[in-house]
Amino acid sequence: MKRVKLAPLMIALVAFTHYQLVIAQDTTPPNWQVIAEYPHPSHAFTQGLNYVNGELVETTGKHGLSRVLRYAPGELPSGSVATLPKQYFGEGSVVIGDQLLWLSWQRGQAFWIDLNTGNRRNAFRYDHEGWGLALSPDQSEIVVSDGSDSLRIWNHQGELQRTISVRQGVYSWHYLNELEWVGNTIFAFVWMNEKLLAINANSGEVMQSYDLAGLRDIQGEQQRITRHHTLNGIAFDPEDGHFFVTGKNWSTLYKLKLEGWE
Ligand SMILES: [Ca+2]
């Protein structure tokens, strides 16, 4: 009787199974896709991105380089609407009517900027770091990030209404950064992680995550960027239901279709 050699057969079977798994992972379609590309001002250390009435309103950071930029998709800004004194490091922003509310990073000071005149006035103070901002769909509330795993909900005067802890099962997500609020979903970039989270605005549960490292790789091939030039701008376009997305000092602004968040 001829003995069947099982060992090579098992190795082949395991190798085949592993191969199948690898193939299965590689062919999983991404839950996002690029549908358009526009220029983005590469001098902009993006900290806040808003899309209002067909225009992008962007706030930038760094001491002495913190600016408000206003431009249509496909164009580049010709100048700044407003700037901050160099002791302030600009962060996220929201547009309410013709006023922009703008956070500073570590100085606990929020500002109102008149988008027509560029005039700046103090809004209110807060006792934590300021990172991202987004306006609720009914414009009555503002969500604020401070780099932790919690989001604060403010009224227009910066008074705390409630706090949301962001969780995915038993895991918490820290370094929540630039924000956008659409329906009952709050989108949040994660600092230096290249993840975009879709968070239930009531429970704080992460309902979907988007791995945009591929987008960063494409951008990295086009220009010299480091890990600090992280993804950090998201703005919803209600006309087509898609999202403008960019990163700090990126030369490209992308329009993304995001799947599975509604
Ligand atoms: Ca935003």
UniProtKB/TrEMBL annotation:
Keywords: Signal, Transferase. It comes from Umboniibacter marinipuniceus. Pfam families: Glu_cyclase_2. This is Glutamine cyclotransferase. Gene3D superfamilies: YVTN repeat-like/Quinoprotein amine dehydrogenase. It comes from the Bacteria. GO terms for molecular function: glutaminyl-peptide cyclotransferase activity. Residues 1-24 form the signal peptide.
